[in-house]
Amino acid sequence: MNDSPYNKLPDNIKRKFKIVYSELLDENITIFKNKSEKWGVLTKTKKFGFFHTYVYIVKPIYNSIGFNRNLGLIEVVKYKNDKWNQDTNIHRFFDFEGKLIWESPKGVSITIDKLGNIITCLKNKYGLLNYKFETVINPIYDNLLAINKSYFIAKQNRDCGIIDTNNRIILELDYSEIINATLKNSLIVKDKNNKYHSFNLIDKLLVPLPFDKILFGTSNSKGKFIESQQRFFKSIINYSQNEDDFRGLEMSEHKGKWGIIEANGDVKIPNEYDYIDCLRNHNFFKVCKGNLSFSDEEDEQENYRVYAENAKWGIIDSNNNLIVPIEYDWIEDIESTIWAVYKGGKVFYNDDYQEDYWTIKDGKLGVYNSNKLITPIEYDAVFTNWYRVKDYIFVQKGNEYFDVNSETYDVFTFDGKKLKQINLILKITIITDNL
Which of 172, 211, 299, 345 would bridge 235 by S-S if both were Cys, CB 3.0 to 4.6 A apart? Predict the structure, then answer.
């Protein structure tokens, strides 16, 4: 059975309407693009009892199309002379029966955010419509970002504050930053003196926070945002910025004592580490202690690298319990509770083509499953192709990267049992007898 919504129209209908692409939106509603590169909408209707036909509910005269399932709306945009121009585009909204609900004035563009708020934009100023497409906030702000259904972060002249859906001021537009994440009706704001506060949306109280710097819960090791860490933020006290030119690399740019806070400013992990990093499992964090320092050196390929030195690494859980001792020269995230630990080697920032992350070279590795070391620390590479094998750890000596064509490797179960093995080429076969 083909569950794909794409190009499901009968061939005779495709020919009749000159369709080159189609997508089924909702039961009998299909959007399509014709040979003239114009978009429209068809509906399937009954004809002569058991027979069906397709008819337009939106004629194919538009240059772009979208839909919002929650609001039950189809949005189409028509460009003047078929050329996109924010000042001349016209947006129209239809329901699933083809009834025109609203047409924008010329030059007013519309965005429906993930909460269903209808944001207007006119000459780079933002406002708000209600569900009847009536203006509730005129387009006067430089940006308008929903916190929830009731409140918005509003920006004007680089200052930001909080308004409600009736444009009443909840927090004066006198702040330099507002972090758009809430817990217990509170979020974090930063004033123009770079001081952080927790602000409660209900009682409108500002409570000072003791942190010098607050950063998003990213994985600096992997160079990306961790979706599961949206509710956590990195906090720093005794803060300074690295005097050397290491800006843009979180770990090397910011110095101080690191911890983790929640969206309302409550402390999750106290500020007692020299760096802290988020992992794919939001219940754990990678931490380091020591005189974490950095140098810029040329490697054997004549590439300049930023190296991290003089610190030891471990893993803690979200209650600050030590899971992996803080005694390793580097740790890499493999799976939910599977980590490679390294002794020896040099930690560096890999910024080669399409690569942006901290890693290590020339160290010997072992593997932890939660708080148990399940392999000796004597290997050079670990197999991480987890969509093929999810119950075993494969480690190898003599290669910087795991060589699947080699017959030389060791296999361990997740509880540390070493196994015999044969043939690792794409598909891995395990003989589970003890050595």
Answer: 211
Q: What is the residue range of 193's domain? A: 115-205
Q: Which of 51, 84, 112 is the last residue of a domain?
A: 112
Reported as type and span, the H/E element at residue 28 is none
State which H helix or E strand residue 165 sits in.
none
What three-state secondary structure class fits 97? Answer: coil
Exposure on the CB side of residue 206, measured as CA atoms within 13 A: 14
Q: In sequence order, what E strands does 201-299 have? A: 206-208, 213-216, 218-219, 224-225, 232-241, 254-262, 267-273, 275-278, 284-298
What element of type H or E holds 252? Answer: helix 250-253
Q: How many independent structural domains does the chain possess?
A: 3
Q: Per residue in 277-304, pLDDT tens? A: 999 888 999 999 999 999 888 777 777 8
Question: Cα Rg for the chain, rounded, in angstroms?
Answer: 28
What's phi and psi for 12, nearest 5 deg? -65, -30
Say if CB 235 and CB 179 are below 8 A apart: no
Residues 6+ apart with CB under 8 A from 433: 419, 420
Instruction: Give this prediction's pTM.
Output: 0.86
Q: What is the dihedral of CA 307, 297, 380, 248, to 10 degrees?
A: 40
- Does residue 410 fall inside a structural domain? no
What is the SS3 assignment for 175? strand
Question: Quick check: is 389 in a domain?
Answer: no
Residue 246: pLDDT band with limits 50, 70, 90:
low
**Residue type (1 letter), 78:** K
Residue 347 covered by a domain: yes
Question: Buried (b) or exposed (e) across 219-230, using 16+ Cβ within 10 A?
Answer: bbbbbeebeebe
Question: Rounded to whole angstroms, how far apart are CA atoms 181 and 188?
Answer: 8
**227 and 371 part of one domain:** yes
Question: Cα(80)–Cα(97) distance, rounded to whole angstroms?
Answer: 26
> 367 and 317, same structural domain?
yes
Instruction: Give the span between the Cα atoms of 286 and 390, in whole angstroms.
Output: 23
Rounded Cα–Cα distance for residues 189 and 199 (Å):
7
Amino acid 373 reads: L
> What does the mean pLDDT of the chain come to?
89
CA distance 99 to 96: 7
Amino acid at 402: F
